[in-house]
Structure formats: C-alpha cells, structure tokens
Amino acid sequence: MDQQENHPKSYDRTKTLAVKPLDGEMIKPAELIDIQGGTGLTLAARRLYNKLLSNAFGPKLAVEGHDFTISLAELRGTHGGNERIGESIEALMKTVVLVRHGEGHTTRVQLLGGNDMADSQREHGTLTYSFDKRLAPLLQSSAVFAKLELAVLQAFTTKYGLALYEAVSRRIRMSFKFSEVIAIDDFRELLGVPEGKLSSFGNLRQKAIEPAVAEVCALAPFNCSIEVADRVGRKVTTIKLTWWRKTEDELRAMYAEKKALALSDLNPLLEDLSE
Q1: Strand residues in 21-122 grouped as ranges (E)
Q2: CA dist., res. 233 & res. 84, Å (int)
Q3: pLDDT per residue over 62-106, tens digit each?
Q4: Is 5 domain-assigned?
Q5: What letter would DSSP give residue 206?
Q6: How far is CA 231 from CA 187, 192, 234, in A?
Q7: Is residue 145 domain-shared with residue 210, that is, in the same domain?
Q8: Are 125 and 69 contacting, i.e. CB atoms less than 8 angstroms apart?
C-alpha cells in the first residue's frame, strides 16, 4: 500500500476556493446550494452552516479531514444560546445531501463531520469541526459559486427566503442566462420544503414562494419572479424562475430604507442613553 494513502489528500488547482471574498461577504460553492436532502434544516441551522462554511472557506477546504475552529460567540448570533447551537450542529451532522454532477454521477455528503465544543459555558468557548472527506474533491473542481452578503443572510426571517436568495445569487452572475425552468419537485427541494408539506401548489405559492420572493426583492441587490411554466391537467409540473439586477435607483432606495430602519432601531437606544 502507498504510504500516502494513510494521510489526508490535499487538492490543488482550486477554482472556487481561490476566490477572495470581500469584507462583509462569503463565497458559497454551487455544489452546496443546489442540493437534495436538506429540507429538514431550520433557518437557524442554515445560518449556522453558512457561518461554519464562511469561517473555513479557503484552500484548506480542499484538505480531507482538516479541522477548523470558530468561537462560540460568533455562532451565538444565529441562536439564542449554546443549547440551540448544539441542536443545529446535530441536525447538520444527521443531514446527508445528494449532489448531482451530471451523466448519472452523484455524491452523497454529510453536511458536517465530527466536532468538539470546548468551554461551552464561557465567553471564550470554541467549536472545532470538520467536513465530510468527500467534500474536499467535490469542491476542488468547483467553478460555480454565489457571493452572499453576510448582513443579508442574517436578515432573512424564513428559510425559504434564505434558500431562494442563495439560489439566485449563484445564477445572477451568468452573462447570457436570465431565467430557468425547474421541475416542481426539484424546486421544492431547492427551497427546502419538507416532504408532505405544502403539497398543493396554491399552498406552496402562498406559504413559501410569495414570502420568499418578497424577502429576496426587499433585501438583495437583485429581483426575481416565479411563475408557472407548465401543467399536466391542473397539476403544476414546472416553474420558471427569472432574475434581474436592480437599477441604480432601486439600489439607492433599498439601501436608504435599510439605513432608515437601522436608525429607527437605534433611536430608542440613543434616547435611553440621553436620559
């Protein structure tokens, strides 16, 4: 047996992993956006996973079995306490997603591998974690990714809105494509709708699609729309997802509204300090 087989493999010639995120943004490979199997994850678990991925992002993600460390203080922003952090971590560990490569090739990946939480009751507590070893070669060849704004990720109030934001973010960078027809079952997976929930298209549109589109259009630097593309009888079989960048005036209006909301949240605090 080759001695090298006893050691973790490091994958070079990265593409997505070579991208340098700007301040206030994270890079998320498309392989971890358009997945199947993550429908049971809560909004909190999805936020926590993005934190872990953002913290680990870089060439070392292409090293099998590498350990990453993050302070629990950074993770508490997605949860109300350490107990809930633990619940989300366990949910990620139990979630196996299916990544399709085309031509019938698929990879099943556990979203989060083994981990250790140290000094969980103290301010300086840390989480040391790793990813499934199959994630390394999967991301080594990745060339498609989404640039996600960290503040926007935290602003979503539904997991459907967050999932749609990630899905459009990875498509908005395409130069000559502005829409995509998606099978309804695949779209339900993309949004993270649990099996057996919102089974009729009317309920899906009212409870998931419309709130998600509204949140994305309010928070993201782009707009999107979703409409029925095809039916078999009365059953919707495909939808059409369309996206476009906001105009300069729309962006100015959006950021002005965000600034006004931030100031309105801050004013009561300033009034308390002045008393």
Answers
A1: 25-29, 68-71, 96-102, 105-110, 115-118
A2: 45
A3: 898 899 999 998 888 655 556 688 899 999 999 999 887 766 788
A4: no
A5: I
A6: 15, 22, 6
A7: no
A8: no
Q: What is the CATH number of the domain that holds 105?
A: 1.10.10.10
Residues 6 or more apart in contact with residue 252 via CB below 8 angstroms: none
Helix (H) or strand (E) holding 230: strand 222-232
Question: In this structure, what are the phi and psi dihedrals at residue 31, rounded to the nearest 5 degrees?
Answer: -60, -20
Exposed, middle or buried, 36 (CB in 10 Å: 0-12/13-18/19+)?
middle
Q: Do both 160 and 256 map to the same domain?
A: yes
How remote is the C-alpha of 95 from its chain's centroid? 14
Amino acid at 16: T
Q: Which of 153, 187, 218 is the last residue of a domain?
A: 153
Q: Alpha-carbon dihedral of residues 57, 58, 62, 68, nearest 10 degrees?
A: -50
19: Cβ contacts below 8 Å, ≥ 6 apart: 27, 145
Enter the pTM of the model: 0.85
Q: Which residues neighbour 113 within 8 Å (Cβ) at sequence distance 6 or greater?
A: 65, 93, 129, 130, 131, 132, 133
Domain span at 50? 24-153
Q: Tokens 């009365």 map to which residue?
A: 234
Is residue 11 one of the residues assigned to a domain? no
- Note whether 106 and 206 are same-domain residues: no
User: pLDDT tens-digit profile of 197-231?
Assistant: 999 999 999 999 999 999 999 999 999 999 999 99
- Whether residue 13 is contained in a domain is answered as no
